[in-house]
């Protein structure tokens, strides 16, 4: 399971525990985020774990819990706990062929929930076996002949003891795995027990990341509903496998109804990144290259984005060349909260049709005004007046005004556009120079606030790069780009969708 569509909201206030009779606390209370297909996202829920009853109940709020208005519950008998390999605060519960997805605030909170859930599951599994064994024992008439002479327990109780021992060993192994990963996180990520994780069914669709000093690969799903419903979770058998994969695309195992993205750092001085995205079914691609120049502006910092991108409508043979806005980190004074915004002019033009647009990203005044404002004017070929004007917030609602009809309508409402979760390719499957693999130790140090570890790991990576540069210079070797090639001042993806379709059609005509 992964975070939301990008990232789920953090959970609310921590835990509460009620004392149980005899051995310590028998309830655990607190807020977690739960994935729901009803709202297509993460929702806060107040959870109560009743260890005696073996139930994990959830409510829309603590007030609803106090009133006894329960939203739903998860039965923990015969359940399996899964811990996601790529997220350090998420876990799943699979029971009765249904999988429920949860997110805690941080890894420590997740560990507390997982330990208590595992204990509850194990306790009820033992109770069930003990009841079955006792029933069989009394029905069979008590002790066997061996037990009456040798004082041994019956065979079915011996089996019970062995099963209980195996359960304890299994639970100990799980605990050791958790403890080990917390102390020495694998790839900078807290990994849960692999056997348990393999039983969960992660969301279908998302983004596959490889990344690199050399490159990164992302595949954003055009479809897919991660997680489970509020009261009716998706089952493993419900996942539909699409066999129409784009084998010759940027991400060979993605489907045709998904958006794929690939990036590569093609230059170190200046630090130029090239990237390419495509949607096979919609026949739309986007290729771009960009590098930045930074400048300090008093209490603010400006980042000038240099480069351009090209959106291609393959079926229409149209290309739209776009430039990029600048980024700013603002702060009025040391007493105010800083913010990040976009600003500057952007031009969009289509050489094939002659249409073009001027877009202005408006920065917030230091006093008053709103953030994320944007305006645009679209021109027909050879016209000096725009036929439509667009204004609003690039992070929210934008409206279009058609001048010939004097009509205003919604152009786009960003908040209504669904967000699809990112899928990350495991680091062990990534290539040598993919970002997450190269920087995994640096990430681990930052993740656990170990600055010295992160600094040392960063030095190791950079020193390896310096040594490689020195070796290439000594042997007069050129760095080979993996996915992009230079064409003038631009960087072109070597196997674009337009080129692949052209070659396919050419082959078909033979």
Automatic annotation (TrEMBL):
Gene3D superfamilies given for it?
Answer: 2.40.160.120, 6.10.140.1150, Pleckstrin-homology domain (PH domain)/Phosphotyrosine-binding domain (PTB)
The record's SMART domains line, in alphabetical order, gives: PH
| Chain spans, region Disordered | 220-249
InterPro entries xref list: OSBP_sf, Oxysterol-bd, Oxysterol-bd_CS, PH-like_dom_sf, PH_domain
Any matching Pfam family: Oxysterol_BP
Under Gene Ontology molecular function, one entry of this record is: sterol binding
List the GO biological process terms: lipid transport
Is Transport a UniProt keyword of this protein?
yes
UniProt keyword terms in alphabetical order: Lipid transport, Lipid-binding, Transport
Which terms in the GO cellular component ontology are assigned? cytosol; Golgi apparatus; membrane
Q: Does the keyword Transport apply?
A: yes
What residue spans carry the Acidic residues bias annotation? 227-242
- Tell me where in this chain the PH domain is found: 25-122
Judging by the UniProt lineage, the source's domain of life is Eukaryota
> What family is this?
Belongs to the OSBP family.
Report the PANTHER family cross-referenced here.
OXYSTEROL-BINDING PROTEIN-RELATED, OXYSTEROL-BINDING PROTEIN-RELATED PROTEIN 9
* Protein's name according to its UniProt entry: Oxysterol-binding protein
